[in-house]
Backbone:
């Protein structure tokens, strides 16, 4: 269901002018239809989770009834997806192709199919968050039927221009594949919180991998479920 500018302002408890400001300066996803802004609920939740913006939790009831399993944490999802160092590529397609190599995805979704799903999401707005970090993922998570959420951290050999809000080229990808919309959004929220942690930020700058990174993420103690 699409939402109007007035409805979105109520959800975020701010003025309509503030919402327009976020569209222009904070990459809030919106579409212009007959000179009116229209918004998709899932896109708003994704943006809010990453931007750490509070909102009316009633919006969840309109997206997906599935909740994140109690034992799901970002570090667990990252252990399933793994960490790659020095991922290369001449452009975003090459980088994503190398990033998903070996990822345990269902046979029903081929390598090229997953790349197209990831590129389709980038076509409606960059998944770059700033500070050299991007979170590529399918626009509709349920199109990739995986039993458990997976996150793959990729340190790139060369920075990649991805229209980051701060203009900094991306050199770290958190590739995210989730079985439900809720799990995707809640893991995004957890990632957003962890990226505010100094020890996590330093580990990313140092390209820490393996068990040491999993330990740092768990010790950060900032994982939460957006409510």
Residues:
């Amino acid at each position: 269901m699409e939402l109007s500018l007035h409805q979105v302002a109520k959800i975020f408890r701010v003025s309509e002018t503030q919402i327009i400001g976020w569209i222009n300066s904070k990459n809030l996803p919106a579409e212009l239809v007959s000179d009116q802004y229209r918004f998709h609920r899932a896109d708003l939740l994704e943006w809010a989770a990453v931007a750490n913006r509070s909102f009316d939790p009633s919006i969840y009831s309109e997206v997906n009834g599935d909740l994140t399993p109690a034992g799901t944490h970002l570090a667990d999802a990252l252990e399933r997806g793994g960490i790659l160092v020095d991922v290369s590529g001449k452009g975003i397609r090459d980088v994503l192709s190398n990033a998903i190599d070996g990822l345990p995805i269902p046979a029903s979704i081929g390598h090229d199919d997953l790349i197209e799903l990831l590129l389709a999401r980038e076509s409606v707005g960059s998944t770059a968050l700033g500070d050299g970090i991007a979170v590529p993922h399918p626009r509709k998570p349920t199109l990739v039927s995986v039993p458990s959420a997976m996150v793959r951290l990729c340190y790139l050999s060369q920075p990649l221009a991805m229209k980051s809000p701060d203009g900094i080229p991306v050199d770290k990808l958190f590739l995210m594949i989730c079985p439900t919309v809720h799990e995707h959004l809640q893991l995004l929220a957890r990632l957003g919180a962890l990226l505010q942690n100094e020890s996590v930020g330093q580990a990313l700058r140092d390209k820490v991998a393996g068990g040491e990174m999993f330990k740092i993420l768990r010790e950060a103690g900032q994982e939460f479920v957006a409510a």
User: Anything to note?
Assistant: Residues 82 and 115 are 18 Å apart (CA to CA). The longest strand covers residues 150-160. The beta strands are 2-4, 31-33, 36-40, 83-87, 128-130, 133-134, 150-160, 170-177. The domain at 74-220 is CATH 3.40.930.10 (Mannitol-specific EII; Chain A).
